[in-house]
Write a structure and sequence with these properties.
This protein is of the alpha+beta class and 340 residues long. 31% of the residues lie in helices and 23% in strands. It is elongated and about 100 Å long.
């Protein structure tokens, strides 16, 4: 089912206006008429490291899917998405171990498999996937960031999240850890006319969801991807900008006359954060495009060894205990030697 629907893929990556190197990477492949894989990765880790990480992820993942029989992917899509992401993670770690200049590198990834009319999505980090259906755009993935954890806990409202100082700090990425931990979104049944957007935060951080949806909804399929990147650059272009558009059948004929709506994220169908208490206000009066920061990653691992730091100074406690015992013995001897 779905193999007779016309699918169109448009992709583009751009360095932006502020960076000296493009550390984003993308890849997609038609594995069979009813089977497509789409990947966007956003690298980090200093000059050259980020580009190595993201390119390693996309190349290894594509090879993993290409070397797997299509029937096996159709039967167990989540298993093979996890295997591909883990392979990408291992590839980043291997290169980091061989070159100390790359030891801090890592990458986000968002991966979609379209099998017939079934959309399977997995991601690590803050690269995103959206679905545009008719005139409504909805976020599929939930960012793995510190601020999104605060939103989930009800400490920060979704409206304030984009302006929070921790908006660029990741809680998950590929590299930096031995085993990746991808998050799988609910499977979505695609309908003719749907459009899927995968992007790095260089796009989603510069344009609001309604702006993304409006461009995809109102612009021709052949131009929308370029206009998305152009608008992100006009908004500041503070980061690399990468996007893939996957059109599942033609857009509605009357799309240009529709008004865009932003729907609730798909992940809220699973859990809804409680925000009854007032949240920390970080919104500024005018839209601050400076909100986009370099991606960072919080980890408890030792960056020098990529292992959890060992407990240091483990000789201190025994010395203290021995000193106390000797002191008590001396006091007892001293007290026993004083005549009453």
């Amino acid at each position: 089912m779905g193999s007779d629907v016309i699918k169109t893929v448009k992709s583009l990556t751009d360095i932006g206006k502020m960076r000296e190197e493009n550390q984003d990477s993308l890849g997609w492949k038609e594995l069979a008429p009813d089977l497509h894989v789409l990947i966007v990765a956003d690298g980090m880790g200093g000059y050259a490291g980020g580009s190595v990480a993201s390119t390693t992820v996309t190349e290894i993942m594509l090879k993993e899917f290409e070397s797997t029989p299509a029937d096996a992917i159709r039967e167990k899509p989540s298993l093979h998405m996890r295997k591909a992401i883990n392979a990408g993670n291992a590839g980043v770690n291997t290169k980091a171990e061989k070159n100390r200049e790359l030891k801090d590198m890592g990458s986000t990834v968002v991966c979609c498999l379209v099998i017939g009319n079934q959309l399977h999505t997995a991601h690590v980090g803050d690269s995103r996937a959206y679905l545009l259906r008719e005139n409504q755009i909805r976020l599929i993935t939930e960012d793995h960031t510190v601020v999104q954890d605060l939103v989930r806990g009800g400490y920060v409202s979704p409206e304030d999240a984009s302006y929070h100082p921790s908006s660029g700090i990741l809680t998950k990425c590929l590299g930096q850890m031995e085993i990746s931990d991808p998050e799988f979104s609910p499977v979505i049944e695609l309908e003719e006319g749907d459009c899927l957007l995968l992007c790095s935060d260089g796009l989603s951080g510069m344009l609001d969801d309604d702006e993304l949806g409006e461009i995809i909804l109102h612009e021709p399929d052949s131009k929308a991807i370029n206009i998305l990147v152009d608008f992100a650059n006009e908004a500041g272009g503070f980061d690399n900008i990468t996007a893939i558009l996957f059109y599942y059948g033609p857009r509605p004929a009357d799309a240009r006359s529709m008004n865009i709506r932003v729907g609730n994220p798909f992940y809220e169908d699973i859990h809804t954060p409680e925000t009854s208490e007032p949240t920390i206000p970080y919104r500024i009066q005018q839209k601050g495009r400076e909100k986009l920061r370099n991606t960072m990653f919080i980890t408890t691992e030792d960056p020098e060894t990529n292992k959890r730091p060992a407990i240091k100074n483990n000789w201190v406690l025994p010395v203290i205990i021995t000193f106390i015992i000797l002191l008590l013995g001396f006091l007892i001897w001293l007290a026993g030697g004083i005549p009453l």
